[in-house]
Amino acid sequence: MTVTKMSWRPTYRSSKFRNVYGKVANREHCYDGVPITKNVHDNHFCAVNSKFVAVVTESAGGGSFMVIPVSQAGRLDSHYPKVCGHQGNVLDIKWNPFFENIVASCSEDTSVRVWEIPDGGLRRNMTEAVLELYGHSRRVGLIEWHPTSSGILFSAGYDYKILIWNLEIGEPVKMIDCHTDVILSMSFNTDGSLLATSCKDKKLRVIEPRSGRVLQQASCKNHRVNRVVFLGNMKRLLTTGVSRWNTRQIALWDQEDLAMPIVEEDIDGLSGLLFPFYDADTHMLYLAGKGDGNIRYFEITTEKPYLQYLMEFRSPAPQKGLGVMPKHGLDVSACEVYRFYKLVTLKGLIEPVSMIVPRRSDTYQEDIYPMTAGTEPALSATEWLSGIDRDPVLMSLKDGYHRPNQLVFKAPVKEKKSVVVNGIDLLENVPPRTENELLRMFFRQQDELRRLKEELTTKDVRIRQLELELNNLKNVSPNNV
């Protein structure tokens, strides 16, 4: 297959999204005085749903993040409460797509934690998680909720492993062990039956998550892949990365044949990581560079030229990360099709940026708001693990916000025991998280060594006794014959 190089000068063709523009919220609708983390890890550090904005914050002696109700914009109190149970920096946070008060976080302390946020937000610091999940032997850099199942969470660690957690029992049930370096990103197809990953080993993979089988693999020599995203049901993947000339570029791939990209396109010569965001409802792709102030957007089609450059939102303030509001939290009366929450570290500011389709009519615009993935899970964790796949349960945005979800998140009661996945006890290798724990572990190991040495000595003595008895028997037996 030949790689098509494209020019992205806007060639005008009829598209309802040709004039989409970005609109920054007024200052009173921004969140000010937020001590945004200074961590250089390549993540968004921000997660949003229709109730809350969560952002990883700078903190001494452990990791923390803030949860701000969406409606409480303005300047935050300097003593605003935080979620602060982790012993290391928080590296990723994600809201559960079906339980709007449930958020997961992962950290340098090797743990993944699941938190339940009260309806009006926090009144005091929260240190107790609903679930503490230990299984990785090194820090955990990425987490991702399954898109259609209510209790399945994926985590990727610096031990090069992806663990699949069943939150109905609070334990890891599968381990995907096919990567040879740090996993950079994970993305699901629409029904969650396929997982695409990009990895520091320069390989792009499409994996069947339940079996851990690699279905497709690309070794990217010309296009060093950083981030990957599934393009809904188009059977396509989009990656952002770096060309051999160190220019930032994007590539489009056929998910069933990763031999060569369908299209490669150079973007610019800047160095910040390019984050891709895809909206399956409008087939729009947004590209936001870390440290850039702008967001470019494209329309993706199944025929050539595949990628149609639309426009660029520009701003002088560089972004550290971006959170995205789910579809049911958008303002449909303003023809808003996407909303970013942009972290501006220097100003301690979270700035909402709305993407708007300019329309004169006040009526509901059916063509830009098709039925979209809603807040009801299509299947339980057990059903998904047993091999069932289902498409998301769709909802209409016509009547504004949907009816409240009647589901209640129930955390399993956990006993301390070994966690064996693929024949390996994951908890055996969890490193100590504090100095006291390290000392306790050291003394425990010293006692164990002493006990084993004594056991070995007694066994040596017993072996010598048995050898002597055997020799005696040999010496005695010929005389008896």
Protein model, in words:
It holds the Pfam family WD40_4. It comes from Seriola lalandi dorsalis. The strands form nine sheets. Strands 2, 3, 7, 29, 30 and 31 form a six-stranded mixed β-sheet that branches. Helices cover 11% and strands 38% of the residues. It is mainly beta.
What distinguishing features does this structure have?
481 residues, mainly beta, 35 strands, 11% helix
Compact overview of the structure:
WD repeats lie at residues 83-125, 133-175, 176-217. With 481 residues, the chain is mainly beta. It is 11% helix and 38% strand.
Mean pLDDT: 88
Write down how many β-strands occur, each being a DSSP E stretch of 2 or more residues.
Answer: 35
Report the total helices.
Answer: 2
Q: How many domains, as an integer? A: 1
CATH class bucket: Mainly Beta
Unreliable runs, pLDDT <50, ≥5 residues?
Answer: none
Q: What's the oligomerization state?
A: single chain
User: Helix share of residues?
Assistant: 10-25%
Rg, rounded, reads 27 Å
* Secondary-structure class: mainly beta
Given the C-alpha coordinates, what overall shape results? globular
Output the CATH homologous superfamily: YVTN repeat-like/Quinoprotein amine dehydrogenase
Strand content: 35-45%
The largest β sheet comes out as: 6 strands, mixed
CATH fold annotation: Methylamine Dehydrogenase, Chain H
Query: What's the CATH architecture?
Result: 7 Propeller
Kindly report how far apart the N and C termini lie: 86 Å
Domain DUF1899: 10-74
Organism: Seriola lalandi dorsalis
Family: Belongs to the WD repeat coronin family.
GO molecular function: actin filament binding
